Amino acid sequence: MTDNAVVTINGTEVTVPEGTTILTAAELAGVQIPTLCNHPDQMIKAVCRVCVVEVEGARVFQPACSFPVWDGMNVRTNSPAVIEARKTVVEMLLSRHPQDCLQCERNLHCELQNVSKSVGVNERPFPEETRDLPIDDSSGAVVREADKCINCRRCVEACADVQGVGVLSTVNRGYDTVVSTAFNEPLEQVSCVLCGQCIQACPTGALREHNDIDRVWRALADPNKHVVVQTAPAVRVAIGEDLGLPVGTRATKLLTSALRQLGFDGVFDTDFTADLTIMEEGSELLQRLQEGGTLPMITSCSPGWIKYIEHYYPEQLDHLSTCKSPQQMFGALAKSYYAEKNQYNPDDIYVVSIMPCTAKKFEANRPEMAAEGIRDVDAVLTTRELAQMIDQAGLDFPNLKEEEYDSPLGISTGAAVIFGATGGVMEAALRTVYELVTEQELPALDFTSVRGLDGVKEASVLLPLPNGEDSLEVKVAAAHGLASARQIMEKVKNGEADYHFVEVMSCPGGCIGGGGQPRPSTTERREKRLQAIYDEDEAMTIRKSHENPAVKALYEEYLEKPLGERRHKLLHTHYVQRSRY
């Protein structure tokens, strides 16, 4: 049993378990201590020294984020000497930091800005010595501005420990230390998967997405372009966070209204092609089970995961589903099925995606993602970028009139909505595969065993066959975060995986925790977004992909059947082997 400690913080007593950090004890006492390297979901680093406090009896100031309390400890967080020490630390950081706040994409949303204000920095006593390091925009998805790096190491942990990729680390020593890649290679030349979790961790503008807002504004202003937009399932439960609504608000109908006011000619839902993905992927799984294809079959919806397996397990690419992601399926159909149906020239259609993911920018530019020389998707905006556009347009988002998606590419089901949550693709597939195989209605729609924030979730589903005599046990797994995916891939590599179907999402929590979602993307926020996704699913009239009437019509009018010839050209693809270096 842990002993409690009575700690005095600025004259206020608080009782906490012994060993609790001063930072946590102060929060319980109602005192906020500024910090830059601390992150609620990460290990203690104690490198920024902004959180120093005065501990009675100690010779020097101590970092509140790492220093443990003891019974009878007396702490002062606001003595004149402490305040001056914090100011000096921040002033020194600012002496090497570019003074371009008005041009920085983190302006007014920057932790360094906030801390500077809170510690009372109002002058620059140290000479400016910026490093003039080059900006790396080589990947077209994630941008590094090393001059804005404050060496907090939060991105290093996100990349190495959460994602198991480890392309970022501290290089050089002492005064010249900076976070970079090995040999300062551009991101395009290393095995970065462009998931954007480093962006989520970064407290400044040192890491950000490649900004495509101006490209989209230009397309919307072009009278010769028919501009359509698709929104990913995870966007609707996060966009409100940057626009004045509580975390976890389901803002679907406000989102569609805002997009129309921005000038999009067609406002559609990626959920439509998520339902289509289930039809194609489910049929592919059944084909592999019946004809002896490569197992386990692994989902291909997450572009960060695809790039990861291409770099780290290239010999296992046969396990991937050949399906394009819902984003790319939508683009292909917008420039074929939708174009023909409405008599548009495919060259005049401009497809914009609103995604929770930075790797989607990379995916849209892959050479494989084009049919007959026409790119599937023309521009990808993150949830954050769309929020900026809505601000630029002066829209009062919380008070917009609620509107529905356009038909037919805006019709979807609850199964498609849960694509935004870890385990959601698996659950949606099981809802459909069960009924396709058994020819019976599911007794219960919710497969809760694949839900939640555990890194790897395993389950088995017994499928009674129509002959009434046999049954098929399908073993499945779902992983989120690439460090968790590595666990499964090591089993696959060593022949120890007895799964039939595996879902992998590259980001913690799935798409709801994507690199393009509003900051901060903490565990607490991800849990609220997850709940909103499941609430949205339960509120839908239709909750199974194979019952989507618009998808049925698509097959009848255009695709003929799942795994047919036309669908292979539009909806399926291949992937490539990449080296790690």
How does this model look, in words?
This protein has 581 residues and is of the alpha/beta class. The chain has three domains: 4-92, Ubiquitin-like (UB roll) (Roll), CATH 3.10.20; 131-209, 2-Layer Sandwich (Alpha-Beta Plaits), CATH 3.30.70; 214-571, 3-Layer(aba) Sandwich (Rossmann fold), CATH 3.40.50. It is built from 19 helices and 20 strands. It has helices at residues 22-28, 80-95, 111-119, 154-162, 197-201, 213-221, 252-262, 270-291, 303-312, 326-334, 337-342, 359-364, 383-392, 414-417, 424-438, 482-493, 523-539, 549-559, 565-571; strands at 4-9, 12-17, 52-55, 62-63, 74-76, 135-136, 142-145, 169-171, 178-180, 207-209, 226-231, 266-269, 297-298, 349-355, 370-371, 374-375, 379-382, 456-464, 471-480, 501-505. α2 (80-95) runs antiparallel to α3 (111-119) and α8 (270-291) crosses α10 (326-334). The longest helix is centred in the middle third of the chain and has 22 residues, at 270-291. The protein is globular, with a radius of gyration of 25 Å.
Low-confidence stretches: none
> Strand order across the biggest sheet?
2-1-5-3-4
Distance between the termini: 49 Å
- How would you describe the shape? globular
The CATH architecture of the largest domain can be given as 3-Layer(aba) Sandwich
Structure at a glance:
With 581 residues, the chain is an alpha/beta fold. The chain is 34% helix and 15% strand. The strands form 6 sheets. It has a 5-stranded mixed beta sheet with strand order 2-1-5-3-4, sandwiched between helices.
